[in-house]
Amino acid sequence: MTTLYNRIQGRSVERLSALSDGIFAVAMTLLVLDIHLPAASSIHTQSELLRSLAAMAPQWAAYLMSFLTLGIFWAGQQTQLNHFAEGSRDLAWIHLGFLFAITLLPLSTRLLGEFVAFPAALLVYWANIFLAGATLYWSWKHAEANHLIRPDTPHETRAAICKRIVIAQTFYACAAALCFIRPLLSILAIVLVQLNYVFAPGTRRQRG
């Protein structure tokens, strides 16, 4: 009976997609709620307000990085889900692990915003990104091994999905390693990696 239940559990890709959309929406909302505005009692002039907003630059940078990260991972997960013929119990739990990593992002973002000058904060943030990327890669390889991918999915598409995750994670790791030289340099490198995947300049050239 247990074996039969395990075979029929988690078959709906649509339900998994709906859950994922909800969790991503909540995570994106929590990011902005973690930005702490200056206390009104401490601001008496416009120049003081501007200085306080400028002092919040690390928080704004962390928010931008994490919003882009969530957007990239949401798009990556949806790409996978769109190519699945059906789900499975194990695949559902792998994606729940992926969503666990996503729910941690507001926390690692807040840590980075508060301790932006410390390499350890950047490494925790990168570890969060790595965990999400690793589970997304595991999801695709598991789906391939268990024939859960749509039969009409071209081989080039299957390879491209894996390649994109590996290359992105390599770029993120290199960017994170720069924190030992200078944390701000590492943050800039991570943002550049993200912007590359957001705007996809290579894709536009190919279409042209």
Task: Walk me through the structure.
- The protein has 208 residues and is mainly α.
- The protein contains nine helices and no strands.
- The protein has helices at residues 2-8, 13-33, 46-55, 57-82, 89-114, 119-145, 155-177, 183-199, 201-207.
- α4 runs parallel beside α8.
- The protein is elongated and about 65 Å long.
- The N and C termini lie far apart (56 Å).
Concise description?
By secondary structure, this protein is mainly α. It is built from 9 helices and no strands. The protein has one domain (2-207).
| Unreliable parts | none
The string of secondary-structure elements, in order, is HHHHHHHHH
- Shape descriptor: elongated
The percent of residues in helical segments reads over 70%
- On the 0 to 100 scale, the average pLDDT is 88
Task: Specify Rg, calculated over alpha carbons.
Answer: 20 Å
C-alpha termini separation: 56 Å
Which structural class fits the helix and strand makeup? mainly alpha
Number of strands: 0
Domain count, please report it. 1
Number of helices: 9
